[in-house]
Task: structure prediction
Amino acid sequence: MTKSEELFVRACKVIPGGVNSPVRAFGSVGQTPRMIASAHGAYMTDEDGNRYLDFVGSWGPMILGHDEPEVREAVIRACADGLSFGAATKREVEMAELICGSIPNVDMVRMVNSGTEAVMSAIRAARGYTGRDKIVKFMGCYHGHSDALLVQAGSGVMTAGIPDSAGVPQGCTKDTLSAIYNDLASVERLFEEFPDEIAAVIVEPVGANMGVVPPYSGKTGDGCARADSLDRAAAEDFAEPVSPGSNENGNTLETERPGFLEGLRSLCTKYGAVLIFDEVITGFRLGFTGAQGYFGVDADLVTYGKIIGAGMPVGAYGGKREIMERVAPVGPVYQAGTLSGNPVAMAAGLAQLTILKEHPEIYDELNKKGQWFYGSLKQIAEETKAAVQVNSCGSLGCMFFTPEPVVDYASAKTSDTAQYAEYFRHMLSNHIYIAPSQFEAMFLSVAHTREELADVLELVRKFLNKESFMQ
Ligand SMILES: *Cc1c(COP(=O)(O)O)cnc(C)c1O
Result:
């Protein structure tokens, strides 16, 4: 037995499934988890000394690579001052100023300890602000594991084949309405049925928990590649950066079809509902201003997690002043946290966000890298005639094992997960660590080099060249 296997046997006796979050389980890919001992740059090393090129990046936070020196030093300095005070601190003020000073529509922000908490609190604020109960979410979008949002929630739930979680009373989800991602008509129907009852529409601006499913955009050249809308010439021209949110002329011409996010914006405005962008993955990843800036669509509330904590347990929700002023202690919407705004966590997040803010070229390079890498993957898929789809948006992307374009939850589910499992094992045996589930993204970081990515592309080509993947 390897050390990872030994540890996993011990883990299974004392931790459900041996893991502290289901997405870390390797069950759906027929493996047992590698126990990770350390990580630096683009690589992770397990307890047996195996080194892997990492495409999970702690599920997003490690946009600068693992063990970034400035982040590490900031954490060490903060530790020397004490781990927690349960009192207000300067770093929290600096963090809030950094966010509110840069992010459109975020006038005020509240720090919490996870993405789940951020979303749960944002929903409460939206309900408190509107005095309405119902919320609209999209099938296949994941917004953390709070009761009201565990309805067709993608990601870990999807991998485990659980439509909705056990242990969630019906009463908790009776006000949660499900709509179809990329289908504005499905949202419009809900608004027509409940014109005065919907408090909020919550969306992952780029679906990243059912695999990667970008929104139909009202603008061309947004740097997102949908399986069915990617123009071949653009794919072949992947080395050319495309400026986000604008067409070649730098205009923002609307196509005839309204963009999905733009459409949600107008429906929310029309019916007086709060539009919540769950930017736990897209925030500070598509660009410093997240999906709002990338697609040029305004949200009323935004939730953050992952990158904002640089690997520490952090989340945040923020938005329009009139909504955020409903939150306690100024307003009647109660929300609290003993360790919220923890000084060590703030130090880590502040260090990472400061680097990202001061170096906007990081995003140009990262998105260009994504366009080249996923564009090349798509080309390889075409050359090998494999029945796969490559979806991507900036540094996020994934490959679906289906001949159908993937634009929503139903089409994502057509992917052959047994083939994904085989693909996963091929990659892992070649020391490439990708998500142990079809329904997750690949996360590119600053630390991945072109040479490393080129090697990965060849490994994928080798895999897709096998006969079983011919159409
Ligand atoms: C990860 C994630 C969450 C939950 O964040 P946790 O920190 O795991 O609680 C919420 N929304 C989205 C879009 C996520 O990807």
Q: What stands out?
A: The first helix runs from residue 3 to 14. The pocket of pyridoxal-5'-phosphate is lined by residues 114-116, 119, 142-144, 204, 209, 278, 280-281, 305, 315 (CB under 6 Å). DSSP finds 16 helices and 15 strands in the chain. The longest strand covers residues 198-203.
